[in-house]
Inverse folding.
């Protein structure tokens, strides 16, 4: 196949991987695997915000492709599909059209519906409030709060990504609503509600993948993910602290 | 204790759904969290230290997910990420924040160091188990060729 088309397939696969939260080494390995299965030599550098690919044909011609990744989220299912796609490609190299069709299918693969995700977010808050030794009443308040927060984040994600503002406001809302609930019903403990509700927002994937990236020697990507996670935690903490200190001034 | 383990099981399942995990692997992810938390509790009763308990718990989660990933041929972090959710020091982190707001800085420093230590020990536990598995697979491929 032409090296340009191989580069296009590889870029497309890499883009799906990176924008769904895969580690840098996985992206690089997959792209190399795809190039090799078409009998070409490929090299790739992946940071957390973009991929650079260069495909080399046997007669020395070079095709380079750069892709900038702007939006990132976490989707384990798509990463897995791309993983098996590149593994299968080794045994039977698909034609350009077929490969494009498979990639488009993976790109449009089904998500859990918004209802199920909302339920999962609520149940996460519920379980973790109980887990941190909260009472059932605390857990129910945490469910309501995290339901609202998750809906808000889903809606703002459609407008665009404002990572730190988003998390600051979420933290502020969680803190304010928990204090309000405690004010209305004195049996409720705000500490338990807050700890349960913030679990949904924790950047667990960015942290673990940052560690793995550093471990595999991708220091650029690893420290970028690490600092992203720490900034999210700080933004969230600042939001909660703002809510707490405003209320403490009042009381 | 049993209730805590069951909660940890569900506490790994629901975040996994948020990350759009493959439907067949949801139960495996839940089991990962339950195993990690069981190990944490056992070590915690033995030593009374949340830091070493988190460390050993994270190693257990790492070993479980890396070996399962090799058995059913899927990326390891599909289990790793939900598995560490119960170990995350959410409550200590929040307590630190509350002490800062209350202007009780010496207590905040106390709790803050504990949070960082627990977080770091989780990270190091995962690093250790992943690195060992990577090392083993490197040795295997070297021997084959």
């Amino acid at each position: 196949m032409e090296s340009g088309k191989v580069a296009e397939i590889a870029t497309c696969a890499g883009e799906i991987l990176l924008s769904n939260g895969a580690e840098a080494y996985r992206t690089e390995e997959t792209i190399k695997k795809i190039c090799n299965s078409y009998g070409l030599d490929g090299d790739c550098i992946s940071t957390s915000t973009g991929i650079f690919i260069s495909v080399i044909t046997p007669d020395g011609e070079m095709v380079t492709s750069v892709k900038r990744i702007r939006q990132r989220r976490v989707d384990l299912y798509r990463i897995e599909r791309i993983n098996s796609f590149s593994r299968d490609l080794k045994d039977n190299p698909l034609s350009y059209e077929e490969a494009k069709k498979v990639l488009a299918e993976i790109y449009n693969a089904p998500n859990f519906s918004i209802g199920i995700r909302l339920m999962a977010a609520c149940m996460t808050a519920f379980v973790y409030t109980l887990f941190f030794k909260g009472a059932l009443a605390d857990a129910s308040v945490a469910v309501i709060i995290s339901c609202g927060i998750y809906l808000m984040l889903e809606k703002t994600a459609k407008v665009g990504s404002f990572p730190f503002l988003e998390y600051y406001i979420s933290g502020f809302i969680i803190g304010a609503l928990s204090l309000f609930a405690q004010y209305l019903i004195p049996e409720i403990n705000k500490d338990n509600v807050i700890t349960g509700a913030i679990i949904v927002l924790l950047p667990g994937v960015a942290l673990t993948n940052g560690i793995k990236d550093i471990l595999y020697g991708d220091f650029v990507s690893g420290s970028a993910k690490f600092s992203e996670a720490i900034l999210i935690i700080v933004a969230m903490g600042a939001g909660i602290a703002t809510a707490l200190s405003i209320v403490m001034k009042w009381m | 204790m049993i209730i805590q383990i069951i909660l940890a099981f569900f506490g790994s399942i629901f975040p996994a759904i948020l990350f759009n995990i493959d439907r067949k692997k949801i139960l495996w992810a839940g089991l990962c969290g339950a195993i990690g938390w069981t190990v944490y509790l056992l070590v915690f009763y033995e030593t009374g230290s949340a830091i070493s308990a988190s460390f050993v718990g994270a190693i257990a989660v790492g070993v479980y997910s890396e070996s399962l990933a090799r058995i059913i041929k899927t990326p390891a972090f599909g289990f790793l990420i939900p598995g560490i959710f119960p170990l995350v020091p959410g409550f200590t982190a929040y307590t630190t924040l509350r002490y800062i707001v209350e202007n009780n800085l010496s207590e905040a420093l106390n709790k803050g160091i504990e949070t960082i230590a627990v977080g770091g020990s989780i990270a190091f536990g995962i690093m250790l188990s992943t690195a060992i598995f990577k090392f083993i697979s490197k040795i295997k491929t070297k021997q084959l060729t």
